[in-house]
Amino acid sequence: MEGFVYGFQRVPEHCHRWRFFGKNLFRSVMDEISNLPLPEAFLNFLEENGIDPSIYTASDSTPRYVRLKPGCEAELEEIEAEMKCKLRKVDWLPGFYSLPPDIQIANSKAYQDGKIYGIDAASGAAVSALKISPGDHVLDLCAAPGAKICMMLDLLGDSGSVTGVDVARHRLAACRTILQKYSLGDRCRLFVADGTTFSLAPVRVDSVSRSCESAFEDKDDKFREWTSRRPWKERKRAAKAREAKSSQLVAVSENPELIFYGQHSGVVGLSKNELSKTMSDLEVSSCGYDKVLVDAECTHDGSVRHIQKFEHWGWRTLQRRVLDAERTDSLTVLQQLKLLRNGFRLLKVGGLLVYSTCSLTVAQNEDIVERFLKENASAELQEIDEAEGWPCKCGRIPKTLRFDPLTSQTSGLFVAKVTKLAT
Ligand SMILES: C[S@@+](CC[C@H](N)C(=O)[O-])C[C@H]1O[C@@H](n2cnc3c(N)ncnc32)[C@H](O)[C@@H]1O
């Protein structure tokens, strides 16, 4: 891991101390790249956040990344031949390979056959920081479209569960399609719900067997094996519920909608009442999730490819979508804080939570983490030990990490990890 962030430089002998480069030096760096087609307001925004504008010239050289489906290692040569390019092993992240930037992954047969996943290496690092192991109950609070949830499920193996939540139904439906494509849904359940208020407990296998044994329950009230071909009556009921939600009669948060569950996700055999059981704060400490990912919606300014789209969308759109949205009082920032708070509330004592965004701004990253730590005495920021050898830098507060396209050769990403202490 390198020891500085743009605009800030680490004092060499003390890993966690910083000094500011100074405005003038930063300006001169900016003057050098003044031939970039970036508007002045955006350059000012980058300066305020200590982000080197030249990262936005790096897209031509930033590689693409794929993750090989576990078990497909022996087919690597065949995949390379079909894609007509070399897949270079990423030596700091198991299972990941880099490809030349111009390769279209989605068009390849290997992708269509479910042998590779399209996922940036920085995103893979965020999942790695969670240290998922078999048996964990994992919550992904912003799950769609699902690149990270696929990796979680591959790491989980054949015990434990993953609960995916997303407020956008169409995006979560796409996530369900991906899980089915890679045959990964067995231990997963997906809810359309607001992650800032989602409150359902992980389903433990012992509670399922208890419920299966209950002789007094109405069998029709229990979840059977999931099928996309649901009876007409049930589809009508779901459509009605959706209509009510969209006309604001029922908030998404009040009624999480289960849109997928696998055979071993803990849902089959449960009654609807058992599924909708929420956890009190006391129960959470022992029955909460072992691992939580809050991969929050953000302004996406760490993604070079995303920022370049504003050339087509118009730079005025950038003002609204990026520059205004990163203010500390904006809806985007408040939503990120609420997601982090709720993710942490659902974490059991001793569990791990990773907060990540693909923004490089301080307001959406370090400021959020600092505010959150101030208000939660039981939250402790953790060193990301796995990062030894990762090509990232320290964030503006100790123990947080930043990936940026220039130095990491990945898409931009901020990562922070916290644990919950017993109180
Ligand atoms: C950065 S994307 C997540 C990417 C995902 N983790 C992956 O690896 O594919 C952020 C997601 O957060 C969702 N989102 C935004 N606000 C939310 C909320 N209040 N509750 C749950 N999901 C939310 C968006 O719909 C979007 O799909």
Please provide a written account of the structure.
The chain is α+β, with helices and mostly antiparallel strands and 423 residues long. It is built from 17 helices and 17 strands. Among the domains are: 4-62 and 291-420, 3-Layer(aba) Sandwich (Rossmann fold); 63-118, Sun protein, domain 3 (Alpha-Beta Plaits). The strands form three sheets. Strands 8, 9, 10, 11, 12, 13, 14, 15, 16 and 17 form a ten-stranded mixed sheet that branches. Helix 6 links the parallel strand 8 and strand 9 (161-166).
Task: Record the SSE blueprint.
Elements: E1 4-5, E2 8-10, E3 18-20, H1 23-32, H2 40-48, E4 64-68, H3 76-83, E5 88-89, E6 96-99, H4 109-112, E7 116-118, H5 121-128, E8 137-140, H6 147-156, E9 161-166, H7 169-181, E10 188-192, H8 205-213, H9 232-246, E11 257-261, H10 272-275, H11 281-287, E12 289-295, H12 304-308, H13 310-313, H14 315-324, H15 331-345, E13 347-357, H16 366-375, E14 379-382, E15 393-394, E16 401-403, H17 405-408, E17 413-420
Parallel strand pairs: 8-9, 8-12, 9-10, 12-13
Antiparallel strand pairs: 1-2, 2-3, 4-6, 4-7, 5-6, 10-11, 13-17, 14-17, 15-16, 16-17
Helix pairs in contact: 15-16
The protein binds S-adenosylmethionine.
S-adenosylmethionine binds at residues 123, 141-148, 165-168, 171, 194-196, 295, 297, 335, 339.
* Integer-rounded radius of gyration: 22 Å
Distance between the termini: 33 Å
**In percent, how helical is the residue content?**
25-40%
Tell me, what's the shape? globular
Number of helices: 17
In this entry the ligands are: S-adenosylmethionine
Q: Count the strands?
A: 17
Main beta sheet strand tally, sense and closure: 10 strands, mixed
Determine the mean pLDDT.
84
CATH topology of the domain at 4-62 and 291-420: Rossmann fold
* Low-confidence regions: 2-35, 206-217, 248-253
- SS-based structural class? alpha+beta
CATH architecture of the domain at 4-62 and 291-420: 3-Layer(aba) Sandwich
Q: Please identify the top-level CATH class of the domain at 4-62 and 291-420.
A: Alpha Beta
Strand residue percentage: 15-25%
